[in-house]
Each structure stands twice: as structure tokens, then as C-alpha cells.
Task: inverse folding
């Protein structure tokens, strides 16, 4: 899962990014609403975290502009502790949640996970798919009750495929879920990760390659 952070204070922004990396998210940081909009035009993100205090266009104007453009990506707004009015306005303008600064990392991560679950219409943090069980809070998976040893990127690939089960997921979509801008990843590397996941799943689920389009996960035929 990949998060876009919009924060002009480099210390806070970098802290949030490191917290997200520690929680298993790929994360990119931009320092203005304008930069965030162009990032969202070119890359796919599962969540946006935007500070309310930004230069020129603030976080509230940013949310309004995003929703006016029909972009449905979930948005978490960071506000000041005493910013009741800002929080109400942010939610009314189309933000999905808010967090007051300063905040604790576990709460930030839990809110990110909850927002992404909701955006994917998954109410339960545990997802069952055939013989597979994914715990999206612990980021662990079992196949027929047996724990799968997955790296962070392998986990992210499996989670993305399962959340889109039965549909084709493009290679570039998978790439954006596992790597941020600082990582030089090729589409070939995505193939390598997918084949590792496929091997680790054994027969618990089937990942098909759809030539020229991407991958699709299905339950095995009984
Ligand atoms: Ca700021």
C-alpha cells in the first residue's frame, strides 16, 4: 500500500514517512498541494495524508480541489490540537478522517489501515480467500492454517491482488504498491516478486498472468 504525504515542514514530513515505512507502507512526500495534485495525476496512491498548514493552497482547499476533480482517494488531514473548526470543515469538504498533531505513531498507522480497508470495502481486518487468511493488521498470511513467510513486498503484492480478487491488476499498479519514488524498481522486478508469491502460495490460490495486462488471483478450482 502506498501513501502520499503532503507536508511543507520537512522534519514532520520525514517523520511521518519513516513512521509509515516502519508500518509497512511505501510512502512519498511532497511539500505543496500543487505537487500533490501532479503526483496523483501520474501515480496511484491508496491514501493521502495532508497537513492543513501548507503554503499557498492549504490542506482544506486541497481536499476541496481533489473532490471537485472527482478523485476518490481517501484523505487523512493533520490538524492542530485546537483546530475543531478546521476538523469539521475538512470532513465536510470530503476528507475521510483527521488526526491532531502531535500524534502517536500507532494511532496514525491504525487510522491509515482503517481508511484503506474502508476504501476497499473490507470491513474486517482479517480477509479470508479460499484456504488463505490475511491479517491486514499484522500483515501476515496463512494458507490452510500454515503461516506463510512473506517479505514486506511479497505481502504487499498478495494484499493488493486479494483486494482486487477476480480482477486484473496491472504490473505498474503492483509496482506502485511496493515501491516509492526513491526506489529504482523495474517491472521485471515485479515479475520476480509475483513468482515468489506464487511459489509460496502453493495451491492455496492461483495467480494467473494475463499477457500484456497484468495478474489476477483466483481461488483454486476444487
Ligand atoms: Ca505544515
Result:
Amino acid at each position: 500500500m502506498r501513501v502520499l504525504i503532503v507536508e511543507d515542514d520537512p522534519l514532520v514530513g520525514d517523520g511521518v514517512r519513516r513512521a509509515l515505512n516502519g508500518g509497512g507502507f511505501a510512502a512519498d512526500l511532497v511539500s505543496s498541494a500543487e505537487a500533490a495534485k501532479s503526483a496523483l495525476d501520474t501515480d496511484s496512491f491508496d491514501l493521502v495524508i495532508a497537513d492543513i498548514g501548507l503554503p499557498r493552497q492549504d490542506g482544506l482547499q486541497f481536499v476541496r480541489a481533489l473532490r471537485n476533480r472527482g478523485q476518490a482517494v481517501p484523505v487523512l488531514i493533520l490538524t492542530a490540537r485546537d483546530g475543531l473548526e478546521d476538523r469539521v470543515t475538512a470532513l465536510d469538504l470530503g476528507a475521510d478522517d483527521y488526526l491532531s498533531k502531535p500524534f502517536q505513531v500507532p494511532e496514525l498507522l491504525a487510522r491509515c489501515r482503517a481508511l484503506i480497508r474502508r476504501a476497499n470495502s473490507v470491513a474486517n481486518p482479517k480477509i479470508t480467500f479460499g484456504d488463505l487468511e490475511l491479517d491486514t493488521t499484522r500483515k501476515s498470511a496463512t494458507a490452510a492454517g500454515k503461516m506463510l513467510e512473506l517479505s514486506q513486498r511479497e505481502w504487499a503484492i498478495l494484499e493488493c491482488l486479494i483486494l482486487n480478487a477476480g480482477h486484473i491488476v496491472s504490473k505498474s499498479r503492483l509496482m506502485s504498491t511496493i515501491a516509492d519514488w526513491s526506489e529504482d524498481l523495474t517491472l521485471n522486478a515485479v515479475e520476480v516478486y509475483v513468482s515468489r508469491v506464487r511459489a509460496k502460495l502453493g495451491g492455496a490460490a492461483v495467480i494467473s498472468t494475463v499477457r500484456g495486462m497484468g495478474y489476477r488471483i483466483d481461488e483454486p478450482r476444487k
